[in-house]
UniProtKB/TrEMBL annotation:
This is EAL domain-containing protein. The chain holds residues 578 to 853 of 853 of the full protein. Keywords: Membrane, Transmembrane, Transmembrane helix. It comes from Sulfurospirillum tamanense. Residues 24-276 form the EAL domain. The keyword Cell division does not apply.
């Protein structure tokens, strides 16, 4: 009895693994088709100056208009893309689209920055730096208006990665550490990597007014940034009170639902028009 049950469990486990492997391969195929079919779209979340409330830029955030499952957030597919070669065409698509959008804003006379999220795998790709340089030249956009966001999954111990980041920086673009404070080596990043901006992770901003320890950490991050002459962006600001605290603490910029969720391009453009 126990034996057959055990065997059933084993079969069940195998079936599950097979199903998830099948699902994974299917998802990879769908992403690949989706890129060709134009199912991906960039949403834009405004980056706001805390002292005057003006939109200074946008973070490009990837969405997938899936043919049957609706609009999907990156959490539903970016990990799978990163686990395969698909992150390269997808990352390239994001880069091209964000830069061509930046050019259109420039042509309208809008002095906005655009922030682009990078996967570690893209930076590790030996062709990446040249590809970015070529795209910047092709679109003719000012490199200093482009900010690349890397997370702390980027190893500050890997010499090749550090070198790649310096080469990226030499193109004239800005570099931000995303989700700052969530990794275990945050501080070592700051003197090893050519960083311009710290984006304070949402988890510190959320409830910073109710939890003194979170507020203390936000203060330390802001003080550190000031000493190192780095720009600061608070992520995930959802209330007026949080914004007021960040203004008081001298945090340069913020993003968050309090001002706007990430929105499709036409909506972002009307936010800018209404903000001038
Ligand atoms: P992220 O770069 O840290 O982006 C911030 C995430 O927080 C976004 O989720 C945004 O919608 C969400 N958010 C912004 N403000 C608030 C707020 O006030 N409250 C709450 N609760 N959430 C807020 P999203 O768009 O689902 O993106 C998730 C992650 O996916 C991003 O985190 C980024 O790491 C990754 N990602 C997005 N687009 C790309 C891309 O083009 N390439 C790569 N490699 N990764 C991307
Ligand atoms: Mg980001
Ligand atoms: Mg973040
Ligand atoms: Mg994140």
């Amino acid at each position: 009895e126990a034996k057959s049950k055990g065997r059933n469990n084993f079969q069940c486990f195998n079936a599950k693994m097979e199903a998830s492997l099948h699902g994974l391969l299917q998802l990879e195929q769908e992403i690949s088709k989706g890129i060709k079919a134009g199912e991906f779209e960039l949403y834009y979340q405004p980056k706001i100056k805390t002292d005057n409330g003006l939109i200074v830029g946008a973070e490009a955030l990837l969405r997938w208009n899936h043919p049957t499952r609706g609009v999907l957030s990156p959490d539903a597919f970016i990990g799978v893309a990163e686990g395969s070669w698909l992150i390269y065409p997808l990352g390239e698509w994001v880069l091209e689209n964000a830069l061509s959008q930046l050019l259109r804003w420039q042509k309208r006379g809008w002095n906005l920055t655009v922030a682009i999220n990078l996967s570690v795998k893209q930076i590790e790709n030996p062709h990446f730096i040249d590809a970015v340089g070529a795209s910047l030249r092709r679109f003719g956009v000012s490199p200093h208006l482009v900010e690349f966001e890397i997370t702390e999954s980027f190893s500050a111990e890997n010499e090749q990665n550090i070198q790649a980041l310096h080469q990226l920086k030499a193109l004239g673009v800005h570099i931000a550490i995303d989700d700052f404070g969530t990794g275990y080596s945050s501080l070592s990043y700051l003197n090893k990597l050519p960083i311009d901006t710290i984006k304070i992770d949402r988890s510190f901003i959320t409830h910073m007014l109710e939890h003194e320890d979170r507020l203390a950490l936000v203060k330390v991050i802001l003080q550190t940034a000031k000493i190192l002459n780095l720009q600061t962006v608070a992520e995930g600001v959802e209330s007026k009170e949080e914004l007021e605290m960040l203004q008081y603490l001298g945090c340069c910029c913020f993003q968050g639902f309090y001002f706007s969720k990430p929105v499709p391009l036409p909506r972002f453009n009307s936010l800018v028009l209404g903000n001038q």
